[in-house]
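seq as requested:
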Amino acid sequence: MTTHERMKELVREYYDSYNKIPPEHFSYIFHIPQNLDEVEGAIEYIGDRKFHSFVELGSDRGGSLWLYSNFLCADDAEIVSIDCTKNHALYYIVNKLNTIGKNVKYIESHSHTIAPTFYKDVDLLHIDAGHHYEGVKTDWDMWYPKVVSGGVIILHDTTGSGHDGPPRLRAELEKAGFNIKTFSAPAALGISVVIKE
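struct tokens:
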């Protein structure tokens, strides 16, 4: 199965949640904010690697958590979702991932609050929480040291308008010589992949 075919399959499974939830939960809103062409480009760039420790900062409604957990994580991976919002769709997706055999822990808190006491090594980090410069830069400064050598950091919203933080951080990382590649589709917000050397 190609990356594109697997992507379509996972997107169908994610949105199929609407068909599984009980009627009293129809207020849940499932949404994948990432541009799927950009996600596909990032995944193909990362290659066939399977990660054993995945942390996502800012899971929103669980769309990227669903995609990256299924695409990029090993069967025994420890997956941590950190988000400060009370989002029933995210709760549902975390439970759905655990039901299919993933090991996902959801922490309802700010990423900046959790970082000082998070002592595990991270293979894969997705930063998509605060989008003002101070917020995303703080996430980078606090979480980048936890990523192992050879680990991968995915940044969202690195080219799009309306968010000053991620594009500015991406430009700083490029200027500083980080191993970074950016994927940008028309009318989308951009995904950048950093490989820690």
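Residues 3-195 form a domain with the Rossmann fold fold (CATH 3.40.50.150).
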